[in-house]
Prior knowledge:
Elements: E1 4-10, H1 18-28, E2 33-39, H2 45-53, E3 59-62, E4 76-77, H3 79-84, E5 89-92, E6 98-101, H4 104-111, E7 124-128, H5 134-143, E8 148-152, H6 156-165, E9 170-171, H7 177-180, E10 186-189, E11 213-216, H8 225-231, E12 236-238, H9 241-256, H10 264-271
Parallel strand pairs: 1-2, 1-3, 4-6, 7-8, 7-10, 8-9, 10-11, 11-12
Antiparallel strand pairs: 3-5, 5-6
Helix pairs in contact: 1-9, 4-5, 4-9
Amino acid sequence: MSTKKFAIIGDPISHSLSPIMHNYWFKKYNIQAQYELLNIKESEIQKVIEKIKKKEITGINVTLPYKKSVIPFLFKTVNDAKETHSVNTIMLDDNDDLIGENTDVFGFQAAYLKLIPNNKNNMKALILGAGGVAPSIILALLKSGITNISISNRTHEKSLFLKQKFKEINIIKWEKYTDELSKFDILINATSLGLVPGEEPKIKLNNLKKSMIFIDTIYNPKQTKLIKLFKSHNLKTFNGLNMLIYQGQKSFYLWNKINPEIDDDLVGLLESKLNK
Length: 276
């Protein structure tokens, strides 16, 4: 039996833990397969995706900055990918057509929103960032019953573009969002805020709701500057690792028709690779 090949494409890509996760599951379920990193330029996307059509690669995950760039090279997008215009999983369908799926929506719901109490309808959420994963977060919130959603982004035009897709959302100017934080129940960071060495996040944490939940979609380091900041005010925080795991679980299922277990050994293995 030949070894199936899977990959994740992006740029940069060296930080990704997806190969460790998927190769762990391949070994656990005795699947002869290998998952690898492919750091590619935008001009190489079509050539790599066509390897699925030629059955040289079985499936591909897509990370930043190509979640929209891959769409023109697909036969169609389906399900959550169709609604978000954001693709993170590519494969052939039963007709051997290239299709794009989105497992980030499921990943966000499973990782965080299932942990939130049932009174979601009254909650207000603010998303920082309008790029790659933002459309998936918006759809995950809407599917979970959270409809009062605001977005703030450094580039105002990107926020306006998202509002064309999701007319329900409100836009807060980037220079104003810290003054608005006290209104929100959930704050989600979908930017690189706090990752730049020497850069301190300028966030006012006065008068926040004690029940506020902070979610950072970044998973490495395990505790970002923002997570440390919110923890210091005794607020509930989550990093991006669980979202990575759950979106990976769904991708694995779509490719292999096996729903892999998220066990302690896997979580421990992934956490051991994170910077503290």
